[in-house]
UniProtKB/TrEMBL annotation:
GO terms for cellular component: cell outer membrane; pore complex. The keyword Glycosyltransferase does not apply. This is Outer membrane protein (Porin). It comes from Bradyrhizobium erythrophlei. Homotrimer.
Length: 565
């Protein structure tokens, strides 16, 4: 419209200039001024449009889908506008917007605990889980085999337990000029119903503190959607993570870790654990296949793994040196050196399958020999067995599950564990055995579900013996068990979602031990476990020699709530 008006004005000027040169000069000046005003208005309009587009971009990102956590191609942050492959400049002022139009620590819409950082994101997460329960170790008559009766309360006992409770932050930061992101996670476990401190019970003694900063899965690393991620720190091993989806009872009484990955029973889960001072690789998914592989150096100055690993507070595999074994006091109750863990999985729609392997080198179990002989062996045979009882252990498992459209999920695992000791130690080798796990889950409504599981530990190659099962005597003065150590665990749970984050659950479980077996209830992440020990020497330590009664039938019922965020 303005251009049209200026055109008309110019025609009028052409007429006027034939009769009034002076007037024409003045009109030229007016037209020049009008043209300058028009150009200024055009520039302002462009600036306003650019500002409006920037504000619209900020508003639109508040409802955008979550950004890719790793990285985007061409060396830019996921979701950022393309820049021809050049690094995106990052503004560090807390008052500025970054290249994506986000302010520093600006809340990410749709995710209540995720915030933007320049070139990245940071997310808080956690789980709070507390339960009330009752358990008993003698619901069926206990065969003492001539041993003394248990000391203290071996029957029903109420308890309040904190289960798998933790807090953490994780995030990523784009690295300018690189096709990858810096990744980090900081995680700590804590007790809601118990006071943090060193744990000393009649089952074990530990120098680690649940509640210390970042005592759980914590790492830094580099990652990209093209080649995967490399991380360093401490983490649940790939062997453990590979079948986590098979365990709807995680942290509950019927957690499958009572038997699966648990070579000898009791509270420790040798092949379902967190590995410290580790480095690992996580591949991207390629045609549904995904690989994870980890290596953890032993960091042990002694070739028999009897020292605490350099930089650690407990023996490898758990417990302090004075816990779990007789003299000499050392890391001789399952401490190991180098460890490797890996799994390969395949996912196709509702189907998932995995194969996993883990190996621990130079696993020291010399305390089994001292318990068989009652003292440090002095005979030639005993000394030989003592020296030989440092050997590698490994585990292999395969598993598959399927999610049906009816809301039904079924899955199963077959596991083989082995300890590589000489033939003369086979009689006490309880670590070589197979195991199975099967479960079914059914969604009843959008908020209600039921779950059933069954685990079976096959009879092991041998057994070193416990308080009421060491009934055999050799010419060399050793006692050991008759090797009847198969066991079963059955469990069931009902769960109801009270909100998207809060779940109420009720679980019942029972472990049926063979006459030489001593599997418990609660292994694998609970604050309170129910094991084979009585109250004798309940202050812990190697000199307490608490009584462990094999062949128990342990039953428990638990109800609690879990809030995940």
């Amino acid at each position: 419209m303005k251009k049209y008006k200026l055109g008309v004005a110019a025609a009028a000027v052409a007429v006027v200039t034939h009769s009034a040169p002076a007037a024409a000069d003045k009109l030229d000046q007016v037209l020049d001024r009008l043209a300058a005003i028009e150009q200024s208005n055009a520039n302002l309009a462009k600036e306003n449009a650019a500002l409006r587009a920037r504000l619209n971009r900020v508003e639109s990102t508040k409802g955008a889908a979550p950004a890719v956590v790793l990285s985007a191609p061409s060396g830019r942050v996921a979701g950022a506008p393309a820049t021809g492959g050049a690094p995106v400049p990052v503004k560090t002022s807390v008052f500025d917007l970054d290249a994506n139009g986000h302010g520093y620590l600006e809340h990410k819409h749709g995710d209540p605990l995720t915030f933007y950082t320049p070139g990245g994101e940071i997310t808080a997460y956690g789980n709070l889980d507390v339960s009330i329960e009752g358990t008993s170790k003698d619901v069926q008559p206990l065969n003492l085999n001539g041993a003394t009766a248990p000391v203290g309360n071996f029957g029903w006992m109420p308890a309040i337990s904190t289960n798998l409770s933790y807090l953490g932050v994780r995030g990523f930061q784009h690295l300018p000029g690189m096709e990858s992101n810096f990744l980090y996670q900081l995680e700590l476990g804590f007790d809601i119903s118990a006071t943090p401190g060193l744990k000393e019970t009649n089952s074990n003694v530990s120098n680690t503190v649940n509640g210390a900063l970042f005592n759980r899965n914590t790492f830094i690393g580099l990652g990209s959607p093209e080649w995967g991620a490399v991380k360093i720190g401490k983490t649940d091993a790939p062997y453990k993570n590979s079948t986590a989806a098979f365990n709807p009872f995680a942290g509950e009484l019927g957690d499958y870790s009572v038997i699966m990955g648990n070579t000898g029973g009791d509270n420790r889960v040798e092949f379902g654990t967190r590995l410290d001072h580790a480095i690992w690789y996580e591949s991207p998914s390629l045609g549904g296949f995904q690989l994870n592989a980890l290596f953890a150096p032993g960091q042990n100055r002694d070739t028999d793994s009897s020292n605490i690993a350099a930089g650690e507070s407990d023996c490898a595999g758990g417990n302090a040196p004075q816990s779990g074994g007789n003299l000499p006091v050392a890391c001789n109750d399952g401490s190991f050196s180098n460890a490797v863990s890996a799994n390969l999985s395949y996912t196709h729609g509702p189907f998932y399958a995995t194969v996993a392997y883990e190996r621990h080198e130079a696993v020291n179990r010399q305390s089994d020999i001292t318990s068989i002989y009652g003292i440090v062996p002095t005979s030639a045979v005993g000394q030989t067995l003592f020296a030989e009882n440092v050997a590698a252990e490994d585990a292999l498992k395969v598993g598959a599950l399927y999610h049906f459209s009816t809301g039904t999920t079924v899955g199963g695992i077959f596991e083989m564990m082995h300890r590589y000791v000489p033939a003369d130690l086979a009689f006490q080798n309880e670590r070589s055995r197979n195991g199975t796990w099967m479960f079914v889950s059914q969604e009843l409504t959008n908020i209600d579900s039921i779950h059933f599981g069954w685990a079976h530990a096959f009879t092991a190659q041998g057994d070193p013996g416990q308080h009421n099962s060491s009934t055999l005597m050799t010419a060399d003065g050793a006692t050991y068990a008759p090797n009847l150590n198969a066991a079963d665990m059955v469990t069931a749970a009902y769960k109801r979602k009270l909100s998207p984050n809060l779940t109420w659950y009720t679980a019942v479980a029972a472990t049926f031990n063979g006459s030489s077996a001593h599997y418990d209830l609660g292994a694998g992440g609970r604050g309170v476990t129910t094991d084979c020990h009585d109250a004798f020497g309940a202050d812990g330590g190697y000199d307490s020699t608490p009584h462990c009664y094999t062949g128990t039938t342990i039953v428990g019922i638990s109800t609690g709530a879990s809030w995940r965020f």
